[in-house]
Specification:
This protein is an alpha/beta fold and about 400 residues long. It folds into 2 domains: about 20-30 and about 300-405, Aspartate Aminotransferase, domain 1, CATH 3.90.1150.10; about 45-295, 3-Layer(aba) Sandwich (Aspartate Aminotransferase, domain 2). Helix content is about 35%, strand content about 15%. The protein has a 7-stranded mixed beta sheet with strand order 2-8-7-6-5-3-4, with helices on both faces. Strand 6, helix 7 (about 230) and strand 7 form a beta-alpha-beta unit. The mean pLDDT is about 95. It holds the Pfam family Aminotran_1_2. One of its GO terms (biological process) is amino acid metabolic process. Keywords: Pyridoxal phosphate. This is Aminotransferase class I/classII large domain-containing protein.
């Protein structure tokens, strides 16, 4: 779904346009972003007008990003600049990664629901198969969920399909929750036993906020922080199979800057292989300057992340309360910039066709939200709602949902 200037809502210039509550963009830190990013461009040097000091990522951004990861992702092994390679967004990095690792027809396993962009990022060029594992919601974040991965792996093996990798989105999108440490270890054990690559998309790692209504929330744990030698007794986890992807778009509220990175501390061969074609996704100098400048300014960085988390928590609480006051179940979450809501149950239960019809009806009436089917969810009625938009836009979108679906506040 792409909204253009002609169709997108603006209170002054296009009041009848579409309010987007279906794209994971964070507008809560816009003023801070303008000030910090504009100032950062003053750090430009003559070198930035050339190809720079490396065709596969400047030394500046690699050094700044590795330092950030060491400070905030708590890796068991220190991340060094030559452990990563950057590209124009996580989509480009994932495309390059899977094109390098897999052959046409190979399969990747992923828990559903999952980020719909994986359908484009992982398979468009490499012609691989992305296989959803439909987990009951109560098992999605537990080690027991890997039993269904095991069953699907064996099923595909009998069919002659070669499974080569597992991808995890941690924190999870669209459900907005980090995975518990024991579940990450279960993924690592499964991948070691089956000799699979383990890819973790951790783009929301620093967008984890406090949620007073979710006392059982777990903090973000990066796969990089797992000490497999101590925490996986009985097996030797081959660290070269672990690949983490991170980027600027979500935690730093700048989807348009297109900065992503692959971090793979124990696989220099993969880094060198991807470096051969990395010019195809090399960062622009302005984007490189802006993010590296912020990452190197420890005080500003800390304040930025702290403020963003506070605003995410406040916005999430507002939207959650709005839906719950109208009898709509909102799944527990403490990460990302969206909530996962069960509109279908509020309407007395719906099927997939009705879910799609509701989506279209809302879109035709000027509000865009993400239907569960877009995330390959097999339980009808769930939708992803982005809450990190300007409050006046958010209120307009919610008012349209209320009017179209008849969601009046319930009497207390």
């Amino acid at each position: 779904m792409v909204l253009t200037r002609a169709t997108e809502y603006d209170a002054d210039t296009n009041p009848h346009g579409i309010v987007s509550l279906g794209v994971a963009e964070n507008f809560l830190m816009q003023q801070e972003c303008f000030e910090i990013f504009t100032s950062a461009l003053k750090n430009m040097t003559p070198l930035d007008l050339s190809y720079g000091d490396s065709l596969w990522g400047s030394r500046r951004i690699n050094k700044a990003l590795s330092g950030f990861l060491n400070d905030y992702f708590h890796p068991v092994t220190e991340i060094k600049p030559d452990h990563l390679i950057t590209g124009v967004g996580c989509s480009a990095v994932l495309d390059q990664l899977f094109y390098t690792l897999l052959d046409e027809g190979d399969a990747i396993l992923v828990a559903a629901p999952y980020y719909t962009g994986f359908d484009r990022d992982l398979i468009s060029r490499g012609k691989v198969k992305l296989i959803p594992i439909h987990l009951p919601i109560e098992r999605t974040f537990t080690p027991e969920g890997l039993e269904l991965f095991e069953a699907k792996y064996e099923e595909l093996k009998k069919e002659g399909t070669r499974v080569r990798a597992v991808i995890v989105c941690n924190p999870q999108n669209p459900m907005g929750r980090p995975y518990p440490r024991e579940t990450l270890l279960a993924y690592a054990r499964f991948c070691e036993e089956k000799d699979l690559h383990l890819v973790s998309d951790e783009i929301y790692g620093m967008s984890v906020y406090e949620n007073a209504k979710y006392p059982g929330a777990v903090p973000f744990t990066s796969f990089l922080s797992l000490d497999s030698d101590k925490e996986l007794p009985g097996i030797t986890f081959e660290k070269a199979r672990l690949h983490v992807v991170y980027g600027m778009g979500k935690d730093f509220c700048a989807n348009g800057f297109r900065i992503g990175a692959l971090i793979t501390p124990a696989n220099p061969t993969l880094i060198r292989t991807m470096a051969n074609t990395s010019k195809l996704m090399k960062l622009s100098s302005p984007a490189d300057i802006i993010w590296s400048s912020l990452l190197n300014d420890k005080k500003t960085l800390s304040n930025f992340l702290k403020t963003n988390k506070e605003r995410l928590g406040e916005a999430q609480a507002f939207v959650r309360n709005w839906f719950e006051e109208r009898g709509v179940v909102v799944a527990d979450s403490n990460a990302g910039n969206f909530v996962w809501v069960n509109i279908g149950e509020r309407l007395g239960g719906i099927d997939i066709a009705t879910e799609k019809n509701i989506f279209q009806k809302l879109l035709d009436s000027g509000v865009y939200i993400g239907p569960g089917t877009a995330y390959h969810y097999d339980v009808p009625g769930w939708y992803r709602i982005t809450f990190s938009v300007a409050r006046k836009n958010l209120l307009t979108g919610l008012e349209r949902i209320e009017r179209i679906l008849g969601f009046q506040p319930l009497k207390k």
